[in-house]
Structure formats: C-alpha cells, structure tokens
Amino acid sequence: MRFKPSLFITTTHLLNFLMQLLDGKKVSEDIKNEIAVEVQQMKSRGEKVPHLAAVIVGTNGASLTYVGSKVRSCEKVGFESTLVSLPEETTEEALLAKVKELNEDPAIDGYIVQLPLPKHIDEQKILLAIDADKDVDGFHPTNFGRMALEMETFLPATPYGIMELLERYKVETAGKSVVVIGRSHIVGRPMSILLSRKGYPGDATVTLTHSRTKNIAEITKEADIIISALGVPYFLKADMVKDGVTVVDVGITRVPDANHPKGYVIAGDVDFDEVSKKAAFITPVPGGVGPMTIAMLLKNTLLARSRRAKNGE
Fold first, then answer.
1. Closest CA to 241 of 10, 52, 15
2. pTM for the predicted model, two decimal places
3. What CA–CA distance (Å, rounded) separates 201 from 195?
4. Which tens digits make up the pLDDT trace of 80-91?
C-alpha cells in the first residue's frame, strides 16, 4: 500500500521553514554601497569627502584586524582615512596629546580610539578628551546623553547596527517584550534605551539583565526579542527561548578547537544550531552584528561631515 505524504505540519516545522537570518554581511554591503553613492555625489559637487581617523595603541590582534577592516571599508566607500598606530608603551600624556591634535585638525571629520587600551592608560580619561562632535563611536557622555533624550547624535555603532538590522528586516518591536543580556555601556545599556524610545524600531518593553539577574531563563522564555551581549559562548540555549523569538547575538569569542586549521572557532553567545530551530529571526556569528558595526561607523562619519559642512568647516 502506498501512503500519501502527510499534510500535517507542526508549529516547529513551520518555524524552521520561516526562520530568516538577519544577514549583517549583506545589509552592511548595502549600506556601504548607499554611502558610496552619496560620496560620489559629494565629489561631483566639489565638496570635501568624509575623513575618518583611527588610533590604535599596541598590537592587540583583534583590534588590528578590526581597524584594518575599517580602513578597507573607508577605501570602498570613497572616504579618506588615517591610521595612527602607536606603540604599547605610549604614555597616557602622549595619547592625550594625539587626541588633542585630532580634535584640532580641520581635515578630520571623525575619529575613534580603538579599545581596549593598555592597562596603564585610563580609558575614561581618553574618551572624555575626544571632541564630542568628532566622536563617531558614540561613547562620549554628551552623545550618550543626547541618545537618552532622543536627540540627533552619534549612536554607538554596534547598537546602531542592531537597530538598522531590525528595521531593514521589518522586525516588529512596538509593544514587544525585549530582553537584553549584558549591561555594558557599549552595547547592553544603549540597546535598552534605543528599543524603549518612541518610534520604530522602538516602543518596546525592555528588561536589562546581567550577571546578578536571578532566574534569567524564566525571563528569556517570555521574550519576543533577545539581544545577547554577554561574551559567554553558547550561553543562550533552545530551552531558554520560545517559538518565534527574534535573537540578536552580539557575542564573539575565540573558542579553542584542535580540529580547526586555525586552532579555534569563533563562537557567539547563542547555541545557534538549536536556537535557530525555534527562532523567526536570528543573526549568525560571524556575519551578523560584526559587519554592521563598521557600516554604522561609516554612517556616523558621514553625519559628522554633514554637520561640519553646515557649520562652514
């Protein structure tokens, strides 16, 4: 006897069919192409193109890779770029002098000081010394405060990238329950502010969780959207999320793997293989949030140039 295929489809099967990657690599390329068109138009009008500078102190491998990507991205979109590479033993006073020089350089529209800095340098002191109008990383208290007040400003690049991903994939946020895992000033805290503000993407009810949060799995199980920026590989398991959840994985950790040619693999905070079976939207690692961070840094630099042009600079 021949049996006809069953037409019965479980909710889990349906979710597997409908699950969509939040493809940061693709979206970041789209954004870079959009910026390149704007820069070409600026050139055709005889206007100054944006100029982004990056300062790196020491030889941190991840930082060197990241800064290198920024320089290549500047070339791709037609920006001018300057890389200031300083030795590990650079003093705090010498770095402050370099920051002052960049603040006063009319050719530089925006710049970043790559973190982490060597332990003998006070990061807060350096970040406070950066001209808020050139702070395209969005870390200066002035810019953070303007963000909290829903005023135009430079948004921190990683949260900005996440907001852009949610918007471009039309992920509904209004009235949704959002759980942010991690309370850093770079990702977690700004995400909680941005998703609770008025407008889209926003208007969500946000719970900010961290290392002292009790019964975190009970909280994440109720979430419509989870943003994890904890830095603990595979922390978020399938039994911690509900069907149809949107998951944004900010974590990126090198996990030793003797079977891999490099001796390690890049892992996110999320157990992707299992969680993706329940998710409606999910970011991959790598290729999710990481590429968006650089794209939004370029958008901030374009905004910086626009502001300076309005001021006649």
1. 15
2. 0.91
3. 7
4. 999 999 999 999
CATH number of 46-132: 3.40.50.10860, 3.30.1360.70, 3.40.50.2300, 3.40.50.300?
3.40.50.10860
Pick the CATH number of 156-290 from 2.140.10.10, 1.10.3720.10, 3.40.50.920, 3.40.50.720: 3.40.50.720
DSSP label of 212: T
Q: Side chain identity at 229, as an amino acid letter?
A: A
Judge whether residue 18 has pLDDT over 50: yes
Tokens encoding 136: 């395209």
Q: Which residues pair with 181 in a beta bridge?
A: 209, 228
- Euclidean distance between CA atoms 51 and 112, whole angstroms: 12
d(CA 282, CA 87): 39
Residues 6+ apart with CB under 8 A from 281: 19, 20, 21, 22, 169, 171, 246, 247
Distance CA 73, CA 29 (A): 10
Cα separation, 160 vs 190, in Å, equals 9
Q: Which residues carry out catalysis?
A: 70, 114, 137
